[in-house]
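Q: Predict the assembly, please.
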Amino acid sequence: MAYTPQYGPGTSVVAQNRRNQMNPDHKLEKVRDITDEDIVMVLGHRSPGSAYPTAHPPLAEQQEPDCPMRKLVKPTDGAKAGDRVRYVQFADSMFNAPSQPYQRTYAEMYRFRAIDPGTLSGRQIVECRERDLEQYTKLLVETEMFDPALVSMRGATVHGHSLRLSEDGMQFDALQRCVLAENGVVKYVKDQIGVPLDRAVEIGKPMDAEWLKAHSTIFHSLVGTAYRDDKEYIEYIQRIHTLRTKYGFMPTEE
Amino acid sequence: MLGPETAERLLNAVVGVPGIRRLMVNGPGLPKTVPYGPARGKPNPNTNRKTITVGGSDVDLRVQVGMVTIEVTDEATIEEIRTVCDRIFTQFPYQLQVGQFMKTQATLVDYAKYGPDADETMIGLVDPKRTDVPVMIQH
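A: Predicted assembly structure:
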């Protein structure tokens, strides 16, 4: 019998959004267009248009050991070319941001190949080969998993996910990598690590509160969907809690 | 959290209320240089870190204003401050809490910095590690 993953429990819109992001068969809604050059500029790992620096010769040019696993697993484009491993890190506000660190890791593990995510409470980093990274970042930024005001790409000094929003609706950023321009468009004026860019990169208008509430993956009793309203999720988490507590003592359900 | 212009408007309106002894502005810090990462030490231009004018004196904002702690001499002042805040905060809500939020006694760190005869108006007002002094506003 073919296995159909459920991805997660819950009947609320938050639970459905989490499942949608995780399910690789679900096509994420494209919300904005960002050019490849803009992505490269904000990532800040190489200058736009330059060749990809390499960490080793392309796989085709080097002798590969006779390994059944290497025959089974096809290398990604980045691995094939011998690219360096580089990263993108996102900080997601707790005020209805459309994705959250744990959620990002789950979604990326289902959707992407050859990645190494690192998950923390307020930020999530994903490392992979540079040319794969640019593709993945493009998807993460252009689709419904991103909001210009509540999600930002921050390599270092990420503090802000749990703070109140600024009066213009932006997530706090000590380095002010992105600013809300007068025309209502968010512009990146610095790259991930806080180095000023040669030109500002427009990333789009912040989504409205209604859209955010409908596309968020975080429960929030004040600004969004309350956790307690999703009975199925509560039941699931209580079951996990019970089993974990009993585990080692009596690891069966009564 | 407030941008510098709104913070300036709020603070100017609040310092106009008689009966305020001390006032402290709090919030997440806006460092002058990048504190972490590969760009550490590079300048951090930030439109939120500005010099604002409060009650005729220049104040260098080092934080994005999120909380203002005010020490008042009389309880009636609190209601006046509430009236002022109601006029300023029309676009988004605010919270006004009443209580003891400043230090009342010198701690060990204060003792190390100011000695046994510390000026009690300084206690709890500035981080003892900082060298810059608070701004005085005359009425």
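Strands of chain A lie at 85-92, 116-119, 123-129, 151-153, 178-180, 186-190, 196-204. Chain A has a mean pLDDT of 93.
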